[in-house]
Design brief:
Layout (H helix, E strand, L loop, with lengths): L45 H15 L4 H8 L3 H8 L7 H10 L4 H24 L4 E3 L12 E3 L12
Antiparallel strand pairs: 1-2
């Protein structure tokens, strides 16, 4: 075993190296010189997912921004910014907007979580070769109650902390 010199860093792997399967190449194919690496897909922002869920539900009910904003007692421009993911709303504002659409806060957040799971599944489809699952049994309002698509991966729930 050699001793590193004082100005030389040693790299200690945190995980053991993965050995390639039988018949697999030891190293991944090299990228041609001058070709930039492909950026990792960007994680969606929660405010975008919640805004999309609000807009989808409002449009499914064929209601206007003005109608929903008045029922929620928030301004039309603010509701528009929420739907476009430009503003981070408080839980009170989200609950009011959800109630004005006939939903509970949990229903709205569940719609957003479903969208997050679908996006995660779509990103994972390429990497995992098309594996996923459908979870059933959600309580229904509007578009809730159908089979929810969720990834077979790391988490299977929703946790919000303030």
């Amino acid at each position: 075993m050699s001793t590193p010199t004082p100005n030389e860093a040693r790299v200690i792997p945190l995980r053991p190296p993965i050995s390639p399967g039988p018949g697999a190449a030891a190293r991944p194919p090299q990228r041609p010189a001058g070709v930039p690496p492909t950026p990792a897909p960007r994680e969606p922002l929660w405010r975008d997912l919640v805004g999309d869920a609000l807009r989808r539900e409002r449009l499914a009910q064929e209601r206007t921004l003005k109608d929903v904003a008045e029922a929620a007692r928030i301004s039309v421009p603010y509701l528009s910014e929420l739907e476009r993911g430009r503003k981070e709303a408080s839980s009170e504002v989200l609950a009011a907007a959800a109630r004005s659409l006939g939903l509970g806060l949990a229903d709205l957040l569940s719609l957003a979580q479903d969208e997050l799971a679908r996006g995660e599944l779509a990103r994972g489809e390429l990497a995992r070769g098309g594996r996923g699952r459908v979870a059933h049994g959600s309580v229904g309002h509007g578009s809730l109650g159908r089979g929810r698509v969720s990834p077979p991966a790391r988490h299977d729930g929703l946790c919000l902390a303030a």
